[in-house]
Design a protein that fits this description.
With about 100 residues, this protein is mostly helical. Helix content is about 40%, strand content about 10%.
């Protein structure tokens, strides 16, 4: 591709790029929390994730027996009283499927 064609393509791409105040890299627990807080503060924010879904560690670590090494309740969404109130951990040290859910 020549320089003129590359410049034209870059210009066309720039015209279609969405503008964000903030981008968050990673849709694990911290990234999702950050996205929530930024939007509550009025920022136009978006999260980008390399995986096919949210969950961070619990999306990627799907090996048999993967589970918490901390008590499950410590992983609760303390920033969301609504979610925290409705959540009931099935195990004291929960496994990957419940953590991802």
């Amino acid at each position: 591709m020549g320089i003129a064609a590359a410049a034209t393509r870059a210009s066309e791409t720039a015209d279609t790029v969405e503008n964000w105040d903030v981008i968050v890299i990673g849709a694990g627990l911290s990234g999702m929390y950050q996205l929530l807080k930024l939007r509550q503060m009025g920022f136009k924010a978006r999260v980008y994730e390399a995986g096919g879904g949210v969950g961070g560690t619990w999306y990627w670590n799907r090996y048999p027996g993967a589970r918490f090494d901390s008590e499950s309740w410590t992983y609760g969404f303390s920033f969301s009283p609504e979610v925290l109130k409705e959540w009931d951990w099935k195990e004291h040290f929960s496994g990957q499927p419940e953590n991802l859910r």
